[in-house]
TrEMBL record:
UniProt keyword annotation of Transmembrane present: yes
Region (Disordered): 1-24
Protein's name in the database: Bifunctional protein Aas
Recorded family membership: Belongs to the ATP-dependent AMP-binding enzyme family.
Entry's transmembrane regions: 29-46, 76-97, 172-192, 204-226, 262-280, 300-320, 327-350, 356-376, 396-421, 427-460
The organism's taxonomic lineage, starting at the top: Bacteria, Pseudomonadati, Planctomycetota, Planctomycetia, Planctomycetales
Ranges of Polar residues composition bias in the record: 1-11
A Pfam family annotated for this UniProt entry: AMP-binding
Major facilitator superfamily (MFS) profile domain: residues covered: 33-452
Keywords: Ligase, Membrane, Transmembrane, Transmembrane helix
Amino acid sequence: MQTLSEAISNLRTDESTEPPRPADLHDRLSSISFISLLAVQFLTVLNDHTFRWLVVPLAKRLFRHTPGKVSLAEDASMLALGLAAFTLPFLFLAAPAGYLADRFSKAKVITWCKLAEILIMLAGFAALGFSNIPLLFIVVALTGVMNALFAPARQGSIPELVHDGSLSRANGLMGLMNVVPCALGFLLGNLLATLAQPGDSDSISWQSLSTAFVVIMSIAVLGWVVSLGIRRVPAGDPECRFPWNFPVDTWQSLKLLSSDVFLARTALGIAFFWLLASMAQLNIDTFAGHDLQLKQWQVGVFGMVLVLGVGIGSLLAGYLSGGHVELGLVPIGAMGIAICSVVLYLAGIVNDDHRLIAFELSVAGLFFLGVFAGLFDVPLEAYLQHRSEPKVLGKILAATNFLAFSGALAAAGIFYFLLAILQLSPAAVFLVCGIGTVPVAIYVMFLIPGAMFRFLFFIFTHSFYRIRRYGEVNIPEKGGALLVSNHVTWVDGILLMTMTPRPVRFIAYADYVNNPWLKWLARIFEVIPIKADGGPKALIESLRTARKAIEEGHVVCIFAEGGLTRTGQMQPFQPGFLKIIQGTNAPVIPVYLDGLWGSIFSFKGGKFFWKWPKRLLLPVNILYGQPIHEPKTVHQVRSAVQLLGVESVQKLKSKEPSLLAGFIKTCRSAGSRIKVADSGGMELTGTKLLIATLAFNRLFRREIPADEQVVGILLPPTVGGVLANVALSLAGKVTANLNYTLSDAQLNACLEQGDIKTVITSRKVLEKRNFQLNAKFLLLEDLKPKISSFDKFCAALAAYTLPASLLLTLLGRPTRGTDELLTLIFTSGSTGQPKGVMLTHNNLKITIDAADHIARLEADDTVLGVLPFFHSLGYSITLWLPLCLPPRVVYHVNPLDARVVGQLAEKYGATILLATPTFLRSYLKRCEPAQFSKLDLVVVGAEKLPNELANEFKEKFGVLPSEGYGATETTGPAFVNVPDHRCELTSQKGTKLGTVGRPLPGFAVRILDPESGQEVGVNIQGRVQLKGGNVMAGYWKNPEKTSEVLQDGWYDTGDLGVLDDEGFLTITGRLSRFSKVGGEMVPHLRVEELLLEIVKTADEEGALPLAVTAVPDAQRGERLVVVHRPLAQPVAEILRKLGETGIPNLWIPGSDSFIEVEAVPILGTGKLDLKGIKDCALARFGPKS
């Protein structure tokens, strides 16, 4: 037989006794049926307590042998007899009550009881009117009969009307419906008693009872009406027969209860609660009147304080349970009851000398006594309902009620014995209650230490994190399962222990399990030690232990990375978990922990614990994925966990501060520190940057028509470019940074597509090139004088005084994450026509957060911004990242001007550089080591980074460039190698030369077979698809093209790649007909179209004259190659005419890049054989082996 502690380990969703409940029997807490049930409970308790506290003071006077003389023993006798009369029906009618709740619809039983209540109240007023004490006790007994029959139907209705996951909250609300009307009843009953018997008169008139009669009868009738709103659920056991032999049937119900030791102990706990509650309620009247010498009407105040405490405790228990049954609250509640009882005793004994202190102690003691009572009772009630089978739930609840009211009846006898026989003071009665609770608390802690520690851990984790849980329904209600989770902090296990709806056994390294400080705790939670360094036999034995636990129906959790991440990226999964799950028929449940990186328990910053948290109550997501049955590979499970990371980002994005809120807060944090600078000598501190952008924002709102959604920007990376971009975003405009290297025709195509009528630029830009664009130019030099003194005053006032959220609200901008469009970045499609990539506020915010996640960016970092803002990497990382994070940034307009770049790096102490291999070669030749002496993070993209170049750069400047990968459609970076010195690596690998790294946190990758479209495993080449919050919203006004590359959130890059078993991606080629030449995207098809116009048409047979492809190039990344049939014109003439079309020079193939062939390769379908064309080019120009 299991022990109770083993039962508690299966507490939250008990598998052995809880069959699936029919889905159509469940409603939400907001359903009409459940609200009606709550209202009936409210009115029943209100009437019960109003009538009781109307009767108590009146009956005490009628009961006294000597009119006008207060006798503690007589009052104790009357109160005890009244409680006994009310309680006895619960003992004798437990079985019939259970029968009614099972045999008939519980809603019908409730309605019948409410009708009976109306008749009973009429009899009660008759007894009061005739001053008939025996009849009054009979009415009290009848009230007990009604409540005895009502209680099982009421409690049994809860699991019929709400989901299991809402049981604790439902019981908390039901507890509240006990508390509020109980408190009101205390006050209302005493008030009505005062009206019925004013002064010291012992007589009661019919006229004086009229007000009480109207109030109480109205409540009774209203209760019956409301009961009609409870949904009629079919009877639990319509075939059961009436239990004519009450004692035998009650005994059988008790035997049924005792057959489950866990339910039996739970029921005894509930009985103990009722004993204490009854003692406290009886004792309040005598305690307030005798020890504290308060007037009778003031007793209601003390009673109200007590029951309000119970109500708050009930609600608190529901909240702290976190959607499951939390028995860890029970021992804490018991200890609290004991302490508060002692406090009340102290209040009674100090009353003579310190009346005010005694009163304050009494109020506090009674309130917290109620709070801890609620914490004690609600989890027990919820567990009883949760564990009981629906078919016998009525009998279980009836048996529990029998025990509960046995406790109440015992309370009546004990109360009379203590006050009337032993002649203890009421304060001493509280002391006896406290002393009697101590062994109960110790016993509960001994039985369920795991539950108590789980709750303490719950409090601990919620002190640091604001935790949200998703997908817990994916964990099976019964049977074994293996949770496979990423591993970020030391407290990951504690988080999963407290938030997983079923108890979890963890697999941990034996060194931790056997640690003297942790060994006892590991034993309580049955942690499975794994001896990684103990040899194969020890490892296999640990895996067998874990498998056996799953086979026995336990949920086991393993952190498959084998250690905490030091990079912030998910590490490779170890294959051991496949051996654990193999042959068990149990599912693997992928789990993702998000939001923990950067907390004091993570390794961010290169150390655990010894760092200040950047914010309190970090938002944390715990996601449980769809079960994976019989996983074949580690990659399958790791990919599922990675996808949960994508889902988590989507859930968090709307709850986090917006991009613009981050900008405002960062500027204020920077204060007088230089935040942005450029090679033109412009420098702005954080405060001045914020004021300047707010001032330009006011100006742009005046100068740019409100109906112009998209505004163009034709500026190089400078402070002016920063001000224009941010100010327009604050003004609610969509920015479009235009590529000033394109021809006028291409730029005008962008303007037309984006419906751009206004372009922000500068006189310096126009002096360098005479742009002929179909748009209105607004020059920064002309705009600056238009900023009035009032604009500057308003901007400064807002910058210094308004909270970020209020400032953004006044500007009409989002304060929280939003998918509102932020910018258009134009690129060229396969047709050569520009496509506007739509990037949202969330795209940028998520990308920036992911970059910060792995790069450890600090205030002493300086970004060297040489990438133009019309590139997604320049826009996201060199523009917005330093504006929303602590680093500062310094810009230069020409990335190939190595001399100036080196000078800026030396002057501002640049530590971070984003560049292309072409730029690095220029810096290698023209920059001195001293100029890059502080540089320690270099991220390279756009082209393949040759290993020789990376090593040469490291040799000269002391820092190894890290290759990354992304696209305009992914807001820039999606993959990156993490350098060792930025993540304080130990044995974990952050960089792998030749690859583009691992995905940024919150992003996912999959590789598809180019032919079948099916996902392939690791180390197999295929099409690269990316998914995450960084993926674009789509192409501007081009839904057809959007649907081609974006499906179910997956962006098809058109690139070929290989994902290895460590999660590193290697780009091997491109299927899409683009090339990156010198970092610029060159569309093959557009070049083809222009060449075809020059060479005119195909020959008589319709054969295609030429096709364009590309091959790797050591200097520029790639070179264009033209595969052609015999041409009628010289190559030089063709190239001359191609140059006259106005396309960029990078788009023009070299004269030595033409290959003559007999026929351009064509597939049987009539389409170009792209692979054949590329092979032809590689055979001529590819690298020599």
